[in-house]
């Protein structure tokens, strides 16, 4: 559907996120006819570029990340682009930006801040001072919002001094992933699972976001951040929320976020000794991915030689509420693991009593796997009888819903959906201030436990599934990490 006319102003326009994700996502929306005829995309960065140079940079990025391009869309899209050189903490460039909006009062204005979070406040202040903030303006904040609770609060206060909460869109791109939204459909558009979706029916939950990539060229950011801040505080906790939340009354703006917040508030703190017992930190050493040698973390650019930043974390979380008491949620994420795979595994309880003798083989519990990427599917492990005239032998088999096979269409990138939700003014898939702060409060407890212990992350070889302690952590509970059936 076509939405009201809008302009996108992207701060950090020459950065990685803008070139790899934002411009390609807007391009795809343009290809689908969702951008208004007069919709402009104004890039802002410190770099002295004129419009033509920015268009050339964008064209290059699109060739790499939105191919195959279609010439008519490319011409139309590039013509929308412009660039302003501005100083987020100074005065340069702001008049020029304001002049682009002379006489443009009624369009929706989206200010997308793809910059360091310390600049969110200063940019908002300057937007206000330049008279750029109208009632139809929205601001999008990229993660991370700060690096702990105090800095998150400060940023939220600074942004909140200029924009109303309803105008603020805190993005977590995992919420824009198709399969993540499918989790809502799976849970709440099917009556089948919900009666079992609690500690009575579910033994435990695993959430994995594994990457084979290292830290790319983001050493400066990553070394101050680490896996807990980069992935767990936001993406993994958001997935946990969608798995664990109560049914919202509707998909109306606040209903879903209210339920997610309750989950975050029910997380048992992982502070002190609990934090150390129920988590494992790792840092990769040189190794190989797909047979290609890769350097260790400490040898990456931008990383301190004695860095104690974790590139892997696994932990055991619990929720203190009626539905989930006693059900562990095992979370795991890391860089330089053997493959890129993100999935949620729901392991149901075993049958209460087996009528099959030992010769039939084990009765394995049902397991629901929601695979987010790379190949999106929902798979349910069932026990079946192995065909044949002999004695009854059991075998695990899968009911398999592959999205590529069932729907045969391109899966849009998460950003495509979210960028359009901003324009439509729909915040359901964005994080509210209280969610972000609640997630930081919990993460900070674990960070504190690590810091106080003085221990270093455990080394693991690039191309393996993290330190062996991460495997021991779940096996101690008599369980194992899910591997492909
Ligand atoms: C980002 C993190 O938020 O998510 C990156 O900063 C990480 O470190 C990325 O690589 C993973 O996203 P995706 O969509 O590739 O799973």
UniProtKB/TrEMBL annotation:
Active site as annotated: 235
SUPFAM superfamilies noted in UniProt: Glyceraldehyde-3-phosphate dehydrogenase-like, C-terminal domain, NAD(P)-binding Rossmann-fold domains
UniProt keyword NADP present: yes
Binding site for substrate: 173, 177, 211, 230, 335
Signal sequence extent: none
Pathways involved: Carbohydrate degradation; pentose phosphate pathway; D-ribulose 5-phosphate from D-glucose 6-phosphate (oxidative stage): step 1/3
Coiled coil (residue ranges): none
Pfam families attached to this UniProt entry: G6PD_C, G6PD_N
Glucose-6-phosphate dehydrogenase C-terminal domain mapped to chain residues: 184-482
One example GO MF annotation: NADP binding
One GO CC term on file: cytosol
Function: Catalyzes the oxidation of glucose 6-phosphate to 6-phosphogluconolactone.
The protein's name: Glucose-6-phosphate 1-dehydrogenase
Organism: Azospirillum griseum
